[in-house]
Each structure stands twice: as C-alpha cells, then as structure tokens.
Amino acid sequence: MTPLVEIRDLYCEMVTFDGVAKVLNGVSLTINKGDLLGVVGETGCGKSVTAMSIPRLVPQPPARYPSGQVLFNGQDVLKISAEEVRDLRARKIGVVFQDPMTGLNPVFTIEEQMVDSILARQNALHATGWGRGWLPSAREERRAARERAVQLLRRVGIPEPEKRIFTYPHEYSGGMRQRVLIALAISGRPELLIADEPTTALDVSVQAQILRLIAELVREINLTVMLITHNIGVVAQLCNRIAVMYAGNVVESGPTREILRNPKHPYTKGLMQAIPADNSVRGSLQGVAGNVPSLLAPPSGCRFHTRCSYVTDRCKAALPPMQIVAPDHEVACVLYEDGVPAS
Amino acid sequence: METLPNSGEGFLKATLRPVSVFRFDQLSIIHNAMLRYIGRRLLLIPVVLIGLSILTFVISRVVPGDPVKLAAGTQARPEQIERLRADFGLDRPLVEQYLMYMGGLLQGNWGYSISNRREVGPDLVRYFMATLELTIVSTLLGMAIGIPLAIISARWRDRLPDHLARFFSIGTASVPVFWIAIILQIILAQNLRLLPVSGRFDARAEFPEIITGMLLFDTLLRGNFEGFGIALRYIIIPAMCQSLLVISVVTRQLRGDMLDMMSKDFVRVARANGIPERMIWLRYLMKNALIATVSMLGFIIGFQLGGAPLIEYVLDWPGIGQYALKAALLLDFQPIMGSTLFIGCVVVGVNLVTDLLYRSIDPRIGFR
Fold first, then answer.
1. What is the DSSP letter of B112?
2. Are B21 and A162 within 8 A, CB to CB?
3. Between β-strands A241-246 and A224-229, what pairing exists: parallel, antiparallel or unpaired?
4. Considering only alpha carbons, which residue of chain A is nearest residue B17?
5. N or C: fewer beta carbons within 10 Å in chain A?
C-alpha cells in the first residue's frame, strides 16, 4: 500500500533580508493511512514548514524548494498546477491552524464562510461570490450547503448551530472558533488533517476538549492526522507515531511508546528529560543545553552537534543517514551506525 | 483514493436533524440598534448647527469692511447707505440680528443677498445641485478608476503595474488641481476640440427643464438625450479634475489595506479551505480592506459637496463653492451664513451615512 504522504529528502529555503535560511535540510517523513503522527520539536525547527508543504501553503516566495519530493497519494504536489493545488486543499487535506482568534474572517458571518468553503469544496462556486443566491439553483445549493454547515457545527459541539451560524466570529470564544475551524477543515471530508498546534493558543481546559474532538473525528471519518505540537504529553495520549525534528531535519521517528520509553537520538533523550516528572523538586526544570542554531548559517554535518554531549568529528563532517534501530524505529545519529550500542 | 471508506457520511447521518436555517431578522439590513443609533445622531445635529451658526456669524461680523457700503456702491449718499442698513436690520445689536436671522431660518427663510437682492434659499439649492451633480459623477469616476487600480497595484505588488499605479496616484495628489484643469482645457478643449472649455451647458442649445437641478439626471428623466449628451460633454473636464483626489486617496488607502489583509490568518485559512484566489481577493480581502476606504470616501464626498471654489472658478462651474466665494468677497452676510449652514447640514448628513455604511460592513463596531 502506498503511504498517504511521503516526503523524500525535502530541502526548503527562505529568502530573507539577512540571507537565505536553510529551513528544511533533507526532511524525509512517511505518513501511512490511518496514522496519527505527532511532530515535535522546538520553535523554528521546520515542523510547520514541513506540514504546510503538503497542501503547498508555504508562500513562494519567500520559500523555495531546491530539491526533494512531497508525494501525496503518490503524486508530487510540488509539481502540480495551481488549480490542482486548490483541488488538493479543497478535497484531500484539511488544515487547522494555531490561532483560532484570527483564523476566521471578521466581516463575514460563520454561515457565509462555511457555505463558501463547502461550495468551493464541491466546485460549486458559481453559487457564491457577487450577486450570489439570486438564481433558484444557486439558492438551492446554498441552502443545502448551509444545512451541511449546521450539521458540521453541531458535530463539533457548537450549541444551537442553526442560530449561531448567522453570527460573526467576534461573538465566539477562542475554543468555539477553533471548533468552527475544525468544522471548516473537515467539511471537505479530507483524507489528511494537518493540525498545526491546534491547542497552543487555548486554555488548558479547552485544549483537552479540542484534542478529544479531534480524536473522535479520527475514529468517525477515518482521518489520517499530522499533529504538530510542542507538547509531548499530547502526543503520548493521541498519536501512534512520533517524528522528532531538529533544525530542519527529522532526527528520529517511530512508534510513540517505543520513542517515549526508549529514545535513541541525544536530542530526543534531552527532550524526554526536559519533561518534569511528578516527583520533581521545585526549580529543578531541565532543558537541552545550548541554543537553536541560526538557520542562516547552520552548523555543518549533524545540526545538533553544537549541543550534543556525544559529539565526535564524524558528526561535524556529514549529516548521518537514518538508521533503523528497531522495527519501524529510525534515528539519524552516528552513535547507531554500527547497530545499537550495548548500553 | 475513492476506495477508502472516507466519505464521512456515517457521522453526518447520525447527527442529521431537520433544521430551519432561514432567519429573516438576522439577514435584514435595518434593525433596531441601527434605528436607535440614527435617532441619537439626528438629535445631535441641531447642536452642531447652532454652534456652527454662532461661529460663522461672529467671524463674518468681525471681519473688517462694511457690507452695506460695498453693496451700495461708491456713488451712494450716506442716507441711502443708512436706509439700506436699516432695511437689512444691520443697525440693530448683534445678538438681535443673530436671533432675527435664526428665527427666519426656522420658518424656512434663508434671507436675501445684500448685493443682488436675490433670495438666498433658491439660489443655494440651484448652486448646490450643480455641485452635487459634479460630486456624484466625479466620485463614481474616481471609484471606477481607483478601486481597480488599487487591486492591480496590490496584486502585482512592487512590479510594473504597481509602480505605474503608485506613480499615478501620488502624482495626481501632488500637482495642484487647478493647474491640471487648465492643462486639460488646453489639450482636450482648445487643441483637440473634443470638449467645451468651461461652463455647464451650451448657451446656444435649449436649456433643459429643471426638475432636480442635476442636468444629467433631468435630461434623462425627460428622455432628452441630446441635452444629456451636451451636459455630459460639459461635465467631463470638471469631473476628471475632481476625481483625481478620489483616485489618489482610494488607490493608496485600498492598496495598503489589501496588502495588510494579505498577511492575515484568515486568508491562509481561506486558501487552505480551497477558496479560489480570485474570490479571496475580491470578496474576503476586499470587504475587510474597504472599511477604511469607505470612511475616507465619506470624508472626501463631504469635502467635495462643500464646493471646490478653485475648480469651479477655473472651469466656470456654477457650484456652491463659487457662490460662497463670491458672497465672502462681498461680505454678503446672509449668503455666507446660508451657504455655511447649508454645507454644514450636508456634511453632517454625509458623515452619518458614512458611519452607517462602515458600521454595516464591519460587524465588530456595531451600533452602540
């Protein structure tokens, strides 16, 4: 079975005022159908750029892809036409972004935005836009789309959706807006849902509700999910696979339990130690020593070598390839080039 | 991947219930909050006008010079001047003069011009309608050029179309408009003989019947297409001059706001939802970006309705600016008061309409 998404050796650069930032440095990532993949890593490590490359939502310019492939159902999305990209976004991929407060258009009602979106996904946009809704056929299509929007809103937990659909985004709370945005994202019955830190901007109590909602939807409509987050706890609860990214590379990937119990890459180990345990002493928070390197002039070889306590000369020379260390568990580190060390 | 059980029908059916989604009260344009807002604003108008009238009255009377002597002419004998002064009540105390004038105004009497003895009221309406006609045509022209120019400019940002559009809008705002008027007269009227040099209607043709006072409108109402053609030829140069301000303001404001909106999250969400680019620009961005432009346009329209003495003078357009200018030069007290208050009413009205408009566009402001 072909994987749903296969990213092969993807490089991405951003042209900035200060120079060219090498944002992705040969990312390879596979998402199988039915996977719930959690992508973790520090801010700026390329999680979002990797994810947004799939529906081609990274603006070009400033971004450019010197090499690599992003295969969705076996088709390279970096090579398809603008209209095919639109179709991909409309019918195959749903995206939920980080900040629900700004994701909805403030001057249109929820109804207008959802109906537009649903119609766009059905390629029925002649029923929308200027002078919309005057032709009887267009009115019928809008009415049907509105009914579907109400159902979607009810499903994501908006109370009294048949009334609230006519209100404006500023009348909704952050959690409610994120629910609306999730409803928008799944309104095209996508195969893949990309959730880019969907709970970061929300209250802790609301975070749990949103995550539960995503988990429910996954079961109900056979979604494949790519969840980007800083929160390893969230990944542990929700995801069956983890990919750890560092400075534009996937450094480790594998099943969630395997990675949490048996992290291999020094960076992953550092991340795990940074999670405070229940019995931690107050004020003893641990982090990964050092700072995230500048992507304008990244370190040679393995980009983690500047912070790594196991660093060798080989690390500085070349980027280590992914090694299989256990079934479905890959890691990119020279420590495992000759198999798993005994300790 | 049609083979995947990924249609999502299951969960939709499970939650499908009959819904009635058409709510007329939610869709209607005028609602209670809006009416209350209009009521509050209307109550404020008398306050504004009383303040304006006192201010104008005081200013027009402290200016040195004697309107009676100016009106009576150099040959008048002192007793003639005094009789004229008494006729117009200008020998009374200032407070009494003010109250008398305002009393007349409340009865719909705008007074008389001291220089030509004509009633002020009908003259104000006649001159104002010429200005109104010019303002409507020039604003429509300005928007018809300015809005597409802004979209083109934003769409092809920092490329050739953008540079040309910005050069045009900044250029038109930087050059004195009366100079442009003269240049247009020389090129279009004198050299190419395409358009008349000045005025509002051909003196040799039969002047159209006045209904509203706007010639383009009146001739159309009567089916007088020949008259419409003449009026149209006469309004082109003035309207081009007046529309330059509209074009430059609309282009720059709308371009900037559209570019601002481009980086908003909701645009990214709309893209991710598969909304086509054209619709994002013309619907999602446009409505957001138009808010500031609408309030700017309201300001410009109000400004134009006060007349443009320079343009009206150079192009001999009989508008209210010319009327007010002549009155001011002659210290003609009642026309000055009349035109100021009249323009004041118009500006207050235009501002009210503008506020209603952008409040209708932006639901976040509301009618509080």
1. B
2. yes
3. unpaired
4. A151
5. C
Q: pLDDT tens digit string along A192-222? A: 999 888 888 788 888 888 888 888 888 888 8
Contact A104 B21 (CB under 8 A): no
Nearest-neighbour CA in chain A from B242: distance (Å): 29
pLDDT digits (tens, 9 = 90+) for B108-143: 888 888 888 888 889 999 999 999 999 999 999 999
Q: Which of B1, B274, B291 sits opposite A121 (nearest CB)?
A: B274
Q: Give CA–CA dist B247/B300, Å, rounded.
A: 11
**What is the topology classification, in CATH, of domain B120-361?**
MetI-like fold (1.10.3720)
Nearest to A102 among B265, B291, B362 (CB): B265
The conformation of residue A17, written as its DSSP 8-state character, comes to T
Chain A residue at shortest CA distance from B269 = A103
Task: Return the DSSP state at A282.
Answer: T
Whether residue B24 lies within 8 A of chain A, CB to CB, comes out as no
CA distance B113 to B120: 6
pLDDT score of A42 more than 80: yes
| Locus of tokens 């994120």 | A178
The rounded distance, in Å, linking the Cα atoms of B50 and B57 is: 10
Pairing of strands A192-196, A224-229: parallel
Q: What phi and psi, each to the nearest 5 degrees, are found at residue A223?
A: -80, 150
How far is residue B140's CA from residue A237's CA, in Å, rounded to a whole number?
60
Spell out the domain ranges in chain B: 49-109, 120-361
Which residues from chain B sit within 8 angstroms of residue A177, using beta carbons?
none
Specify whether the CB–CB gap between B306 and B350 falls below 8 A: no
> Please, where are the H alpha helices in A161-203?
161-164, 174-186
The ipTM (two decimal places) reads: 0.85
Contacts of residue B257, defined as CB under 8 A and 6 or more positions apart, other chains included, come to B288, B289, B290, B291, B292, B293
Confidence (pTM): 0.80
